[in-house]
Amino acid sequence: MSEFSVVRICNLLLGLLLVAGFLTFGTEARTEKVEAGSGPDIKVEVTGSQFRVNDQITIRIVKHRISPNSSVGIFLVPVMPENNPPIHGVWNPGCDGPLSSKTVSLNSTGVQEVEWSGRATWWAPVDSPMLCEDVLPGKYQFRVDLFRTQDVPLVGREQGVLPVRSAYSAPFRLRGEMDLSRIERDLNMRAVDFIQKKLEEPNASDFVQEMFRSKGKLQHRGGGYFCQYKVVPLPHEGLVRACTTVPVVTELGLRIPHGEYFETRPIIRISRRAGTLRAVLFKARSAAAFPLLTRLDLSLANEVDKGEGCSISTNDPQCRERVIFTKDASELLATVENLFYRPETDNWAFLFKFEAKKNGVSLFEVDSFVCVSGSGQVMQVLSTEHNPNKRRRKSDNVGSNGLDCEGS
């Protein structure tokens, strides 16, 4: 073997030894980096397991090997059921999330305590941080995220810095009165939608809008299930029941499923029994106003303005609508003072107040009692005139008990 070949072999062996040493050293170095206790560490503790909403809560942050200028974001996190999918699972309708809009500065070592009011968190519904003051009773944890810088935004558009460590506290419970208004609104909305489609009423109608405003009483069926009964307002009839199909109040608190969780069905058949209130009201007012308009040289075509509209509730329909008829210097103001509906006879009774003026001076006042059938037939008109300058007697005001149609 030549001298040159021996040298080449020696160099090759030396190279292999160097590579093996480098790989060994590199592996040891990488292992050393991930050994326990080599980096920043953080833990979070809560001084108690049960609190009331609005109670002040002390949060203890235990820190090890924290670099200067570090900070933490503290988050209120609702405890969810195991295997809770992001789309078909449940969510907390109350406030949760960061306890401050930016991170809290840390000192280097030891234990640091942070106080929380137990009342509000922060959120950014329109990209501007603001308080969310609707923390609900339930089971929660605190999550602490550690950052290497300070004043890190936790809500809004500016957030985006990733934490280097995170830690969770033990679960704790917030106690208090459960706000079920969301369940009440959702059930009411489903019931109104059901009634609206059955009656083919436009969404913008007074009838539908009043149903949205008048919510039925929420009833607990047990086990976290709830129902709401919705009586179809006059001038129609029917009864609808809307219920949750899953328990919405659990031992974790109020947890709302994503998507639909209602069942709506009629208990009493929905039907148009008395026609529309608007048509019956127009018939009644026209019948009572016609002779008065004639006295003032006015007609129904001289209607120029309307005031407050009708508000139909389930058991007590209210209507304070004001209509003005005017031409030249003459004016007649018509106001609905009271109304009553008898479902057993399908009859309406109205009490109108008319005020006549000429050149701004009162001429006369008239109370008119009108009975109209559900089909729109005017059955009775009784009018009583009063001197506008004379004080009205209490007996002149007819209450709802006095609205009784002859033959009904």
Describe the structure.
There is one protein chain. The chain is of the alpha+beta class and 408 residues long. It is 19% helix and 39% strand. The protein is built from four helices and 28 strands. The strands form eight sheets. Strands 2, 4, 6, 7, 11, 12 and 13 form a seven-stranded mixed beta sheet that branches. A six-stranded antiparallel beta sheet has the order 21-24-25-26-27-28, covered by helices on one side. A four-stranded antiparallel beta sheet has the order 14-15-16-20, with helices on one face. The protein is elongated.
What is the averaged pLDDT score?
A: 81
Question: Which class best fits the helix and strand makeup?
Answer: alpha+beta
Biggest sheet, in brief?
Answer: 7 strands, mixed
Please report the total strand number as a whole number: 28
Can you lay out the helices and strands and say which pair or pack?
Layout: H1 3-33, E1 41-46, E2 50-52, E3 57-64, E4 71-78, E5 90-91, E6 97-98, E7 104-105, E8 110-116, E9 121-123, E10 130-132, E11 138-147, E12 165-168, E13 172-175, H2 181-199, H3 206-213, E14 218-222, E15 225-231, E16 237-244, E17 249-250, E18 253-254, E19 256-257, E20 262-271, H4 277-295, E21 303-306, E22 310-311, E23 318-319, E24 322-327, E25 330-342, E26 347-358, E27 361-373, E28 378-386
Parallel strand pairs: 2-13
Antiparallel strand pairs: 1-3, 3-8, 4-6, 4-7, 4-11, 5-19, 9-10, 11-12, 11-13, 14-15, 15-16, 16-20, 17-18, 21-24, 22-23, 24-25, 25-26, 26-27, 27-28
